[in-house]
Amino acid sequence: MRGIFVIILLICSLSVYGQTEKRPLWKIQLEGALDNYNRWEVEPSVTFQPFKYAGIGVSFLFSKSLDGIHLNGVSADKKFRFELNDEKVLSTHLACRIAPQFYTPSWILGHDREYALYLTFSPGITCSFPPTKHITLAYFPNSTGVWTPHHYEEITTSRAEPLSFQLKTSVSLEIEESLIISLGYTLSNLDPYSGLRETVFDGNMLNLGKKRPFFHSLSIGIGWRFKKLGRINVRPSFLFCSLLPGNPHVYQRLSVAGILLRLVQIQLPEFLPH
User: Which CATH architecture has domain 32-226?
Assistant: First the structure.
């Protein structure tokens, strides 16, 4: 929890530093991608850029297999057939990505210098969740023409690797310091089927194909820059007191709820209607 507290404190400090900047500091972006596991991805993100050539971004990754994942077989005693009750549990993958971002100097284009072309390099980590999945199998009597389930069984998959690393590079075209169109490539050691490969279902294992040495994806995105995400007010006395050794309420105050309610007060973005 102290690690989370330090990260939030760092972002708040950078935000205070960034108040003196005249350029847009925040960026929201939506990207779509295809990867070498034959999956499509959607990834919304928020980036804070307090420095001209560096910032930090947080994104949420949702991906799904283009091909349906089917699980069926015969029980060990040959009395029942079984099949997966809901294939979405196996075919979807959720993750959170945190990554610093580094930018090259822009190549200014256009008669009125309204276009900027630049590269972005972003090494970071991917945190997949949940670590395990709960799968329901429907069992049918192993007889021809019988399609009424006899019973159901719930199986918990093996624990997936929680963390992976990625390196993303992209080329972006920015229009009037606002609209951004980008093309990106990501290299990672992520395995979207981690945990599923090692799970045994009544003596059977899923046929998910061979694990790739590396994860590759190509993406296209659209984003928007703006000056302020909101006004952040930090209570220095609370920050100081929470870090004092021996404070009996330190863990309570460092909880996510405590940070949101006591540490940071965030107003709605100024560009949203009230």
Answer: Beta Barrel (2.40)
